[in-house]
């Protein structure tokens, strides 16, 4: 009696033949997606720790964060670009990670396509709305009552 030493691939016997993926090539997309994850992760660490340091450690720390603090930060183009880069990279990084999970675990092509469509739409909505908020935010709206405006606004 011979003992088999061959280990089958994970889930190899579980997927029905009609659900197996086709062997079509995706070119270099997966390599670039892998590389993007590594590079964006490093940049995100810098952006996030910079964001946390400025918001929590500088000045009065967490006690200073209010509408006026955010309004003052977003009045400076440097912080607009900083927060925009953090938003875009975080959303694209997270979307790429979830896309990979969907590709790994969704067995049916239709399920995979539906999940990725919902993922891409949700990511696009968050990116567009976040970008609009960052660049159209006005902490000093015209016609507002002076007692409701932050201290840096001219009444």
TrEMBL record:
Which organism encodes this protein?
Answer: Arthrobacter hankyongi
**Alphabetic keyword roster:** Heme, Iron, Membrane, Metal-binding, Transmembrane, Transmembrane helix
Residue ranges annotated as transmembrane are 31-58, 78-98, 118-137
Instruction: List localization entries.
Output: Membrane
UniProt cross-references to Pfam families, sorted A to Z: Sdh_cyt (PF01127)
Extract the InterPro entries matched here: SQR/QFR_C/D, SuccDH_FuR_B_TM-su
Gene3D superfamilies the record matches: Fumarate reductase/succinate dehydrogenase, transmembrane subunit
Query: What is the protein's major site of localization?
Result: membrane
Q: Per its record, how is this protein called by name?
A: Succinate dehydrogenase hydrophobic membrane anchor subunit
Q: Does the keyword Membrane apply?
A: yes
